[in-house]
Amino acid sequence: MHWLWVFIVGLVVGLLAKAIMPGKDPGGFIITGLLGIAGSVISTYIGEQLGWWPATGFVHFLGSIAGAIVLLLLYHFLFKRKAAA
């Protein structure tokens, strides 16, 4: 059940990360949601394994947002839209 919440919160986190990141997004709603879910999962796993935060809480939520922003930055860097000539 814990991981189901990670995925649901990850979707919300992806939307928040997109709202925080300015500029054109090379992906759409689905890509942003998937990046949010992946950031939440990675952040949850790493944070819990290193003892940075418990399984739930506000700090955990902020860590998920940070993970999603990092993945969104990587996605922007790797898949930039080409400028029209």
How does this model look, in words?
The chain has 3 helices and no strands. The protein is mainly alpha-helical. The chain has one domain (2-78).
The gist of it:
This protein has helices spanning 2-20, 29-49, 58-78. With 85 residues, it is mainly α.
Indicate the multimeric state: single chain
Shape: elongated
Count, helices: 3
Distance between the termini: 50 Å
Tell me roughly what share of residues is in helical segments: over 70%
Order of helices and strands: HHH
- What value does the Rg take, in angstroms? 13 Å
How many strand units?
Answer: 0
> How many structural domains in the coordinates?
1
Largest sheet: none
Structural class: mainly alpha
Low-confidence stretches: none
- The portion of residues forming beta strands comes to under 5%
Give average pLDDT, whole number: 77
Q: Layout of SSEs?
A:
Layout: H1 2-20, H2 29-49, H3 58-78
Helix pairs in contact: 1-2, 1-3, 2-3
Name some characteristics of this structure:
3 helices; 72% helix; 85 residues; mainly alpha
